[in-house]
Structure formats: structure tokens, C-alpha cells
Amino acid sequence: xxxLTLQFKDLALKEFELTGQSIxxxxxxxxxxxxxxxxxxxxxxxxxxxxxxxxxTDLQSKNGTFVNGERVTSTKLKDGDxxxxxxxxxxxxxxxxxxQEDQKLTEPTMFIEVAQGVSETEAQDPTPSGLDSTAISAExxxxxxxxxxxxxxxEIKKKLVKLGKGEEADVHIGxxxxxxxxxxxxxxxxxxxxxxxxxxxVKVNDAQVGSSHRLRxxxxxxxxxxxxxxxxxx
Amino acid sequence: MKTFSAGRTDxxxxxxxxxxxxxxxxxxxxxxxxxxxxxxxxxEVASSTVVSSVKDYMEAFHTxxxxxxxxxxxxxxxxxAVCHSIExxxxxxxxxxxxxxSYKGMGSTAxxxxxxxxxxxxxNVGDSRIYLVREDSIEQLTQDHTLFAEHIRKxxxxxxxxxxxxxKHILVRAVGIHEAVEADVYEMQPLPGDLVILxxxxxxxxxxxxxxxxxxxxxxxxxxxxxxxxxxxxERGGLDNVTAVVFFFQKEEKGLLHKxxxxx
Lengths: 234, 264
Prior knowledge:
- The structure holds two protein chains of two kinds.
- In chain A, 6% of the residues lie in helices and 44% in strands.
- By secondary structure, chain A is mostly beta strands.
- Chain A has two domains: 2-94, Tumour Suppressor Smad4; 142-232, Tumour Suppressor Smad4, CATH 2.60.200.20.
- In chain A, strand 17 (183-188) and strand 18 form a beta hairpin.
- The longest helix of chain A has 11 residues, at 96-106.
- Mean pLDDT of chain A is 82; it is low at 115-136.
- Chain B is α+β, with helices and mostly antiparallel strands.
- Chain B has helices at 42-63, 77-99, 147-154, 201-204, 209-217, 222-235, 256-261, and strands at residues 2-10, 20-25, 30-37, 107-108, 110-116, 119-125, 129-134, 137-140, 170-171, 184-188, 195-199, 242-250.
- Chain B is globular.
- Chains A and B meet through helix 1, strand 12 and strand 17 of A and helix 3, strand 9 and strand 10 of B.
- Strand 12 (110-111) of chain A pairs parallel with strand 9 (170-171) of chain B.
């Protein structure tokens, strides 16, 4: 949590916690931080949250607002900034957690050596328990099982599986009106996606698929005379 | 299917030099974004080397798309070629870093998209991302290779507010750091009207997926979309170099009249 400390010379007068709200400082009593000094304007400056950060804005005060000795109209506050209004100093500090967050954003990209087996999550760490089965990545092997009109089952090993009558098709689908490729199934980080090529009607769970459909376990896919069921292996 | 694109890179508000590089080519339908790292000018050298190596390899493949020597039976030749192009880039950057003292430890991310026939191949190493915008959805087609992302993948129930925050900017995979690298590769069937975004983390650290999606939906020329994305990241603080490449798919005219009278 960000904190403001009102100081006069070396004396800390008041501490104030910023909890995501806007605050004002000035001489008038209805300011959040009241600074009783004639050099301070009635409403001298304000601090507004912007995402995880705070922006200081001078409210066109007579004698100005200074951050670390420089006059500012509006500036983003950093940990340790000293805001001077009149003769009072307001120190802006961040909690250690916030500083860490801040560093995360300003640090240059670095590379780290990670021992094998720690970094290769997807290959060695099967689906953790408690994870929504529809949200998992395509690393989980899946199969298409023929409910009617074809063979036994097809294991999806390729990144892109083509369904149709043509030679390039991985899953062969007969039928007079079946195009060379009627639909494709692509394995992606977000799961398995079925996309009709637009040359034939493709249904999932009896409803026609428009542009594309992310497959869920036990979905039934209908292409021409063939009905397939999608499920995860093992 | 044909593609049309625009791309823009910007140094941002805080950095002194731009270590991002990108490439767009609508004839080859090849799009690359690379975000370099390393001291002095090494980051720039790393990312531009990645772009030129991938470009050279893929242009050669595009001219004569021969089957690739490979053990991978689960990928099309085009996807294998993209894999190989990143492996080549890795060797070139790694060699440079070994040969020249000032380049020691340099590396880069790589995000590559290549359309071959009716198949879109996407591949990445590091934390540069590729998104697919299709109708009313936005989908990340890549996985970040960062400590942060790995931690989340392994701990799906992890509370982001808990004390230990794994650093977001620490890569666990990068091009040019080791003798070999493995890219994540995916293939999909694009549809006319689909739009793809390649970007460096300077964009995604500043903007959420939804904000990126909204900025794209505002429409306009592709150049304007790129500028809008880069400007938004800068307005948010521009903490890092920002690169955005945007391309979209259009159906190729294949009618008889077009064949007879078309320009190509």
C-alpha cells in the first residue's frame, strides 16, 4: 500500500495511506491532507490513482508543487519521491510488494537458466488436478471416435487435422457431396478448435457451426455422412 | 487466401534504444517480430539477426517449398520450415555471441506467422505474442516462455496477490542463448476477415487483451490500427520498446474471369 508522510523540516507530522482513492492537499480544511501554511494554496495539489500507479497534479497553486526539487504540473510518483508544497514535504513511499511489482515493469528482459523439467511444464507436467477441463491447453492428447460412417478412432497427433474426401485429408469422409477438405481441427494453446472450410455443413451437437468452435470433451461432430465424437485420451 | 499488413515499432518513453525488430511481407505472407536483449547494442543485433535469418530461410522455402528433412510427422512442411528458420536464427545469434565479446549473452524473442496455401503457421520463442482476432473474440495463439507464465501454468490456482511474485520479464526460453532452441509451433485454418497481431511485450505489458481487441475493433486502415496500439502503450507509460504488426486475410479471387483478366 502506498503511503504519504507529511513532514515539516525533519519532523513527521502525519501519515496517510493511499488505498486507490483520489486525494487533495491544501490549506482548506476539507482537503484530505491539510497543510496549514500561508505559502500553500487552498487546494494546492491532488494525487489520483492510475492503474497501480499514482499521478500527482498541481492544482495551479500560487507557489507551485515540487518533486525532488523540480517544479511539476503533473507527474507519476515513484517510491521515495519528495513532494514540496510551501515549506512542507510529503514523502511518497511504496510497500516492498509494490516496489517489487514496479521493478517487474521497469526491469529489462532477462534470461534465466532453468533446470530441465522445471521449464518444460507442458511436456512433463500433465494436467494439474482441479483445473477446468475446458480451459486446458492442447497438450492433452485427444481422439476422434467414429460414431457412424467410418473406422474406429483417430488420434489427433498433428497440429492441424483435415477432415474431408480429398487425398490431403487426415480423416477420410466419404459421401457424394463431401468436399476435399470440409473442416479442420487445430491444436492450440487454448485447446482444440474446429473450423469448417465453408464448403460443407458441419454440425456440433446438432447445431451448425458458423466460423469456428472450440471443442469440449464429448462433443459430437457431424460432417456429411460421418458422425464423430471428440474426447481426451486417458 | 491473401494477406495485407502494416507494422510499426517505437522506442517507447523510457528506453534509449529500440531493441525490437520486425518484418512484413504480403507477397510471401511472412510476418516476424523479435525483441532483443543484451548490453550496449547487442539487443538490437540479436533481434535484427533473428528477423533476417528467419526471413532468408522462409523466402527460400516459399520459392521452392520442398519437403523438409524432419522427424516430426505431426507438422506440415511449412510448419517444419518455420521451426527450422527459428533454429537457424538461434545458431546465427549464438555464434555471434560466442565470437564477439560485446555480444556475449545476447538473445532475442521470436514471433513468426506464415501463411502457406490455406494454412497459417504460428511459432514463438520468448514473450512476444501472436493474437487471432476473429469476429467478437481475441485469442492468444502463443504461450509466453516466462517464469511468470510457467508458474501460472503449473499453479492454476495461484493467487496473484500472494507474496511471491515470479518475475514477469524473466524468460525461460530465448533465441541465441544456447546452441539449440525449440519453438512452439501451431497450425490453423484462417478465415477471410480474420486478423492477426504480432507484438512485443512493450505492448502487452501496457494493455490487456481486451484493450488490444477494442483498439482493433475501432477499425480504420491497418497502419492506423498499428499506430493506435503503439500510441496507447506509450500513453500508459511506454516502459519498453513497442512493436505491433497487424495483418488480415482476404479471399483470393479464383473465378474464371479473374484468371483470364486479372492482373496476376
